[in-house]
Specification:
TIM Barrel, three-stranded parallel beta sheet, two-stranded antiparallel ribbon, 7 helices, 32% helix, 11% strand, glycosidase, carbohydrate metabolism, hydrolase, Beta-amylase
Length: 272
């Protein structure tokens, strides 16, 4: 189930299947329905999770639109479900169908191993962040913007990530937890509706394997926090299988300082 714009990022072919016209028309009048980077540029690959429960899509929330689409597909393809032709359904949860923020879009100039940029600068996610601040008793947002520089900054150069940088502070740990929670909550809600629409079918979700842009993508994975644990627990609750993209890549294929895989042990165990 694709709730995102389809692009060919690998073969070089000019393939682009945008979001439905009625959605993009709404986006012209209200561009805050899209994820947004710090400089105000919108990413139209998919809808921001900030409108999951906001009635901005012709009176419907984004979650209601996703559910209606899935239910319609199930009804139209009933004979294939009953005949066993369709037994697994992969649920799109973000850009490229992956559970992540669109923090490293190649069409906006990102090149590996850039750290990417946070994409929460739209009306709805900023409102969510302000509400989270209030719940924690934080009266103001300290600096307003997260200093990750540009898409292609290196992790040791950006003020937010380098040793002693902002991400080590209490507030920014709170911020990264908020980013992760919004991501997990979105998947939780969509998969709950998916189980209703596709009762009896197996569900599959995709996430990107860890790399240098994982923090801006919402995967709060650090030396003292297992960023994948809350995702795995949520998928387990919905009995949903997990698929990693690029999990076939090993450290030898990557820059020595920016391995694509989860850790060095991955390579050792993958050969057993």
């Amino acid at each position: 189930m694709s709730f995102h714009e389809c692009r060919d990022n690998f073969s070089g072919k000019d393939i682009k299947i945008p979001l439905p016209n009625w959605v993009t028309e709404i986006g012209k009048a209200n561009p805050d329905i899209y994820f947004t980077r710090r400089n105000g540029r919108r990413n139209t690959e998919c809808l921001t999770w900030g409108i999951d429960k906001e009635r901005v899509l012709r009176g419907r929330t984004a979650l209601e639109v996703y559910f209606d689409f899935m239910r319609s597909f199930r009804v139209e393809m009933d004979e294939f479900f009953k005949g066993g032709v369709i037994s697994n359904i992969e649920i799109g949860l973000g850009p490229c169908g992956e559970l992540r923020y669109p923090s490293y879009p190649t069409e906006q100039g990102w090149i590996y191993p850039g750290i990417g940029e946070f994409q929460y600068y739209n009306e709805y996610l900023l409102k969510s962040l302000r509400n989270a601040n209030k719940e924690k008793g934080i009266s103001f947002w300290k600096k307003g913007y997260v200093n990750t520089d540009t898409y292609n900054s290196q992790i040791h150069d950006a003020g937010f990530f380098h040793d002693g940088g902002n991400c080590d502070g209490y507030y920014w740990k709170f911020f990264l937890n908020w980013c992760s929670k919004v991501l997990v909550d979105h998947a939780d809600h969509v998969l709950m509706l998916s189980k209703l629409a596709f009762k009896g079918s197996s569900l599959v979700a995709t996430i990107s394997s860890a790399h240098v842009a994982q923090l801006t993508a919402g995967l709060y994975n650090s030396c003292n926090r297992h960023g994948y644990a809350p995702i795995i627990e949520m998928l387990k609750k919905h009995n949903t299988a997990l698929k990693f993209t690029c999990s076939d890549m090993c450290n030898l294929n990557q820059d020595d300082h920016f391995p694509e895989v989860l850790n060095a042990a991955w390579d050792a165990t993958s050969d057993e």
